Amino acid sequence: MARKKQPKRTRSAPTVEEIVSQIVELEKPSYAAYGENDENGYQVFTPSFIVEGMIKAVGEKEIDDWNRTILEPTSGDGAFTGRILERRLKKAMGEKDSFPANALRSLSTLYSVEMDKELMERQRNNIFTIFMKAARKMQSQDNADLIAKAKRIIANNFLWAMTNMENPITPMSADVAYRMPEALEGEQFGVEFPVWTIGDDLTCTMHREPVEVEI
Ligand SMILES: C[S@@+](CC[C@H](N)C(=O)[O-])C[C@H]1O[C@@H](n2cnc3c(N)ncnc32)[C@H](O)[C@@H]1O
């Protein structure tokens, strides 16, 4: 597959370090509901009972499998990604010793794109809050290495970006997502998604691959 030209960074595109420094734990995850975030009523958000129904329709075993990648291309503040992470972490909590590595794996195969910057920022905080709740239950919340790696994965996988509607997500196209600041300026480029390998000792390596999506 042909590689796209390398992204040009603009002043408005935050670095991973800047994103990491902005991620905070909330008292609890906070989701918009029924267009509250959008004065014009263009944004609607999925209530939890529909999320549950859709997870069942896709297959709970598949959704809960942290080795399977999931991309939410128009993710709002994380109605789906948050619930999927909660389910995976609940499963990971079944084994205390392997919890930290499996918790990072659960996060590492979740990918999310949202063009509304405010919603993406809230989603990252929601996801981190869910992660920390599970870490606290497993008494891993003081593991600075685990927490730093979780933030780094969130900063790389949860993109303030625009899914490209002219080249919809198909196996033929790597052009799945476009970073918003450049897209606004007409300088669109395909994003290569991070692929993580997480060792049992929490070593984390990452490389980037063009996106191919199974439909
Ligand atoms: C109907 S809402 C659903 C949000 C979430 N999936 C949910 O179920 O609650 C659609 C979201 O997609 C975002 N969106 C619309 N077009 C987009 C695009 N081309 N790329 C990325 N995000 C987009 C909107 O900003 C909005 O937050």
Your description of this structure?
By secondary structure, the protein is an alpha/beta fold. It has one domain. It contains eight helices and six strands, in the order H-H-H-E-H-H-E-H-H-E-E-H-E-E. The protein has helices spanning 16-22, 48-58, 60-64, 79-92, 99-108, 117-137, 144-157, 180-184, and strands spanning 70-72, 110-114, 158-163, 177-179, 193-198, 204-209. The protein has a four-stranded mixed sheet with strand order 1-2-3-4. The chain has a two-stranded antiparallel ribbon with strand order 5-6. It binds S-adenosylmethionine (SAM). S-adenosylmethionine (SAM) binds at residues 43-46, 74-76, 79-80, 113-116, 119, 162-163, 165. S-adenosylmethionine binds next to helix 4, strand 2 and strand 3.
Brief summary:
The chain has 215 residues and is an alpha/beta fold.
Task: Give the class from helix and strand content and strand pairing.
Answer: alpha/beta
N-end to C-end Cα span: 18 Å
**Care to count the β-strands?**
6
Strand content: 5-15%
The ligands bound in this entry are:
S-adenosylmethionine
Q: For the largest beta sheet, what order do the strands appear in spatially?
A: 1-2-3-4
Quaternary structure type: single chain
Shape: globular
